[in-house]
Design brief:
The chain folds into 2 domains: 169 residues, Bordetella uptake gene, domain 1 (D-Maltodextrin-Binding Protein, domain 2); 116 residues, D-Maltodextrin-Binding Protein, domain 2, CATH 3.40.190. α4 crosses α11 and α6 packs across α11. The chain has 323 residues and is an alpha/beta fold. It has 11 helices and 10 strands. Strands 1, 2, 3, 4, 5, 6, 7, 8, 9 and 10 form a 10-stranded mixed β-sheet that branches.
Length: 323
């Protein structure tokens, strides 16, 4: 039976008016994918994002490109992704700062736990507690003892208020009883400059930021904040060796807008884990001072929850307020 022309046009118009079907793992991605990063180009989060974006581009046949939206400790980047369609074509590089910000900021426009869907962990960067080579402390127990005997007299620099390094220092104070003064700077490099010149007694920074000064002898590494020793500093003990239960890191992962189709999340998770197992990417991450964080979306969701709860306790204990 042949359709009349009028009937054909009616059916064609009705088909055009139908809503687009949601993307599925079979059709995803259908266009370039934006990965929004709340860090400046060249920073460890940015470099990590570009490693994974390049891998996903090659694996999934569409360009994954990094868009830097630095500012407000990662909040601007999160707000950018918050209103994006939940189709997997806009992703957020989440970090420890997002978990910290839940308590640090009073009026956030989003909740990292309820407004985003965890996709995959990528990397954890340990931090290292250091002192100036001229400061007469050789070990972390010596620093704790000296800080208790001289309360408020030892100044340790960190990046800004609420940064992972800053709250890690507050966690150390809370768990060890060491009465040190944390001095927030606008970034790690100026804190290192003051430590090297003797203006302050030490710095808490990432391994990557401090390692050249440790190797040259300007800074003395006392302990790393991860639960295991850092590959780039194998002779440096962990804080947990002296303060049982201590752990802190600058971790990084991927989240998507809530209600993103589960099969898209699963496909992204599978491909990201494949990248983290790639020898070339593993080497590059190790050279950045990090360790990979393979796991399921649920695994990463548990990390987000646990980190949010942990830093909430520290922020409330120390009375930290956002600048």
């Amino acid at each position: 039976m042949k359709f009349r022309r009028r009937e054909f046009l009616r059916l064609a118009a009705a088909a055009t008016a139908l809503p687009a079907l949601p993307a599925t793992a079979q059709t995803y991605p259908s266009r370039p994918v934006r990965v929004v990063v709340g860090a400046v180009p060249g920073a460890a989060p940015d470099v990590s994002a570009r490693l994974i974006a390049d891998w996903l581009s090659r694996r999934l046949g569409q360009t994954f490109f990094v868009e830097n939206r630095n500012g407000a400790s990662g909040n601007l980047a999160a707000e950018e992704v918050l209103g994006a369609p939940p189709d997997g074509h806009t992703l957020l590089l989440a970090s420890a700062s997002n978990a910290i910000n839940v308590t640090l900021y009073d009026n956030l426009k989003f909740n990292i736990l309820s407004d985003f869907a965890p996709v995959a962990g990528i990397v954890a960067f340990p931090m290292v507690m250091t002192v100036s080579a001229s400061f007469p402390v050789k070990t972390l127990p010596e620093l704790i003892t000296r800080a208790k005997q001289n309360p408020g007299k030892i100044n340790i620099g960190t990046p800004g208020i609420g940064s992972p390094q800053h709250v890690s220092g507050e966690l150390f104070k809370m768990m060890s009883g060491a009465n040190i003064v944390l001095v927030p700077y606008r970034g790690g490099p100026p804190a290192i400059t003051d430590a090297l010149s003797g203006q302050i007694q030490g710095v808490i920074g990432t391994v990557l930021l401090t390692i050249d000064h440790i190797r040259s002898g300007g800074l003395r590494a006392l302990a790393v904040t991860s639960t295991t020793r850092a590959e780039l500093l194998p002779d440096v003990p962990t804080v947990a060796d002296f303060v049982p239960g201590f752990e802190a890191s600058q971790w990084i992962g991927i989240v998507a807008p809530k209600n993103t189709t589960p099969d898209i999340i699963e496909r992204l998770n599978r491909e990201i884990n494949g990248g983290l197992a790639d020898p070339g990417i593993k080497t590059k991450i190790a050279n950045l001072g990090g360790t990979t964080m393979s796991g399921t979306p649920d695994d990463f969701g548990k990390i987000l929850m646990a980190e949010t709860e942990k830093w909430a306790k520290v922020i409330k204990f120390a009375g930290i307020k956002a600048e």
